[in-house]
Amino acid sequence: MSANLLFLLKTVIIAIVEGITEFLPISSTGHMIIVGHFINFTGEYATFFEVVIQLGAILAIVVLYWKKISESLKPNNLLVPGRPGFKLWLNMIIAFIPAAVIGLVFKKKIDKYLFNTLTVAVAMIVGGTLLIIIENSFRKSRHSTRDLESVSPIQALKIGVFQCLSLWPGMSRSASTIMGGWVSGLSTPAAAEFSFFLAIPTMIAASGLDIIKDRPHMNSIELIALILGFIVSFLVALLVVEKFINFLKKKPMRVFAIYRILIGIVLLVLAALKVITITK
User: Fold this and answer.
1) Which residues are listed as membrane-spanning (predicted)?
2) What is the pLDDT of residue 70?
């Protein structure tokens, strides 16, 4: 296999991982770090690639929820206080602010100290444990908010505070916001949908900042890989999101929590045995 073909294969693998994991509560960043370590897809370009293909997964949300998004953005809906579109995007702004502020302030330290296999493994275990505890405590609340239009600004703020947990790679943005939704009184499907919509401004802002600041010089094969990865992550996410929502309507998320904990333990054991290193 030629070097270029092998390189493209690695980028497709990472893109598939991103598409599957971006909206599941198991951490897309954590999985890309782990898989990238095992297939030797690391370095400046790999980091940039992982950022860009997240936008492909976000595009899947825009496509799947286009009817609701386009309706919410109509001027007579978006610009009139009290209207569903105004409430929806006001809540997204409120929920976006906490992680945006903390992320900007601590970005250099997060990049330096938290983007490695060991910290991801610990985050997997901590996040999985929190999922089980919070789901058992709050998921079946009798007063659950069951649709996005009914979410209050206070609930949005609580979700935004929980999203700060996702700044720790391996915690998962999806898991953090869904847990925040449970604590705030949202039903599981409503919490997941809030997580999807919140991903739009959050990931566009985070990815846009990284693209502007950290864009590497690329050759033709790297540019092709970037386009291919974007398309693959979009298509895979398109398939995963709808199935995930249908799953949440019927079953608890304990299976994802157990998976996270097991993966975290395996990684810690491999690190202890020096089978893997603790660097990205």
Assistant:
1) 6-24, 45-66, 86-106, 113-134, 194-212, 224-245, 257-276
2) 96
Q: Is residue 169 part of a domain?
A: yes
9 is a domain residue: yes
Contacts of 111 (CB under 8 A, 6+ apart): none
pLDDT, tens only, 240-273: 998 998 898 888 899 999 999 999 999 899 888 8
Write down the residue that tokens 């293909």 correspond to. Answer: 53
Q: Is residue 277 part of a domain?
A: no
**Global pTM value:** 0.92
The burial class, CB within 10 Å (0-12 / 13-18 / 19+), for 141 is middle
Give the model's pLDDT for residue 279. Answer: 55
Give one DSSP letter per residue of the chain, joined into a string: --HHHHHHHHHHHHHHHHHHHTTTTT-HHHHHHHHHHHTT--SHHHHHHHHHHHHHHHHHHHHHTHHHHHHHTSHHHHSSTTSHHHHHHHHHHHHHHHHHHHHHHHHHHHHHHTSSHHHHHHHHHHHHHHHHHHHHHHTT-TT-B-SGGG--HHHHHHHHHHHGGGGSTTS-HHHHHHHHHHHHTB-HHHHHHHHHHHHHHHHHHHHHHHHHHHPPP--HHHHHHHHHHHHHHHHHHHHHHHHHHHHHTTS-SHHHHHHHHHHHHHHHHHHHTTSS-S--
Residue 252, domain extent: 3-272
CA distance 259 to 123: 13
